[in-house]
Design goal:
Structural class of chain B: mainly beta
Distance between the termini of chain B: 38 Å
Number of helices of chain A: 0
Shape of chain A: globular
Radius of gyration of chain B: 14 Å
Order of helices and strands of chain B: EEEEEEEEEEEE
Largest interface: A-B, 29 and 26 residues
Shape of chain B: globular
Oligomer: heterodimer
C-alpha cells in the first residue's frame, strides 16, 4: 500500500501566486487533515475532513482552502501565497472520529514563498 | 497555553548511552490519548506509540520504553543503548476524546543527536 501520498515534494512560489498541494490516501480512511510544521512550533492543524463533502477549520486556517470530493483525495489550496506560508506541509489520515487512532502522515511538501 | 510541552529542544548523547525525552501535557478531559512520533532527517513522520489515559501501564518495545504518569501529566520516552539511527526529532502529541475534529496537539519536538 502507498499510504498517504503528497505532491509535490518541493515548491517555490512568488508572493501572490496560487497553487494546490495534493494529498491522496489508499487506506479508505474517512478522516483527513492538513498540518503545517514550523521551526519551534511543532505541527499545527490547518483544515480537516471527517468524510467526503465535509470539511472544517483547524487551528490556523487563514489563507488556505480545502475540499473533499472523494474519500481518497484532500487537496489544500493557497489562493494568494504569502511569505508567512513558507513551511513544511503534512497531510495525514486516520479512521473517522477515532481520537485514539494514530495519524498516518504523508512525506511532506516543503513550500517556500518569496 | 501549550497543551503539550517538550522542554528539551536539543539533546546530544554518545552512542550506547540511555536518553529520556520528556513530555508534559495539559488537558481537562478525563479521556485522552498520547502519542510519540519520530521524524528522521529524511523528514517523514513515523508513529511510535499510543497510550490511553485510562491505562497507566508502562510499555517496553525493544530499546524503547514509555513512562506514563497521570499524577504529573507526563509521558516520557526512554531510548536504551542509543544508536546513530535514533538521531531524529521526536514529537509528543495529545488527542482529546471530546474533540470531534480529531485535532492532535503536538509539542515543539526534541531533536536528538546520537554521536558515534
Amino acid at each position: 500500500n502507498a499510504g498517504v501520498t503528497q505532491t509535490p515534494k518541493f515548491q517555490v512560489l512568488k508572493t501572490g501566486q496560487s497553487m494546490t498541494l495534493q494529498c491522496a490516501q489508499d487506506m479508505n480512511h474517512e478522516y483527513m487533515s492538513w498540518y503545517r510544521q514550523d521551526p519551534g512550533m511543532g505541527l499545527r492543524l490547518i483544515h480537516y475532513s471527517v468524510g467526503a463533502g465535509i470539511t472544517d477549520q483547524g487551528e490556523v486556517p487563514n489563507g488556505y482552502n480545502v475540499s473533499r470530493s472523494t474519500t481518497e483525495d484532500f487537496p489544500l489550496r493557497l489562493l494568494s501565497a504569502a511569505p508567512s506560508q513558507t513551511s513544511v506541509y503534512f497531510c495525514a489520515s486516520s479512521y473517522e472520529g477515532a481520537q485514539n487512532s494514530p495519524l498516518h502522515f504523508g512525506n511532506g511538501t516543503r513550500l517556500t514563498v518569496t | 497555553a501549550q497543551k503539550v510541552t517538550q522542554a528539551q529542544t536539543e539533546i546530544s548523547v554518545v552512542e550506547k548511552e540511555d536518553v529520556t525525552l520528556d513530555c508534559v501535557y495539559e488537558t481537562r478531559d478525563t479521556t485522552y490519548y498520547l502519542f510519540w512520533y519520530k521524524q528522521p532527517p529524511s523528514g517523514e513522520l513515523v508513529f511510535l506509540i499510543r497510550r490511553n489515559s485510562f491505562d497507566e501501564q508502562n510499555e517496553i518495545s525493544g530499546r524503547y520504553s514509555w513512562n506514563f504518569q497521570k499524577s504529573t501529566s507526563s509521558f516520557n520516552f526512554t531510548i536504551t543503548a542509543s544508536q546513530v539511527v535514533d538521531s531524529a526529532v521526536y514529537f509528543c502529541a495529545l488527542s482529546e476524546a471530546w474533540n470531534t475534529g480529531n485535532q492532535f496537539y503536538f509539542g515543539t519536538g526534541t531533536s536528538l543527536t546520537v554521536i558515534p
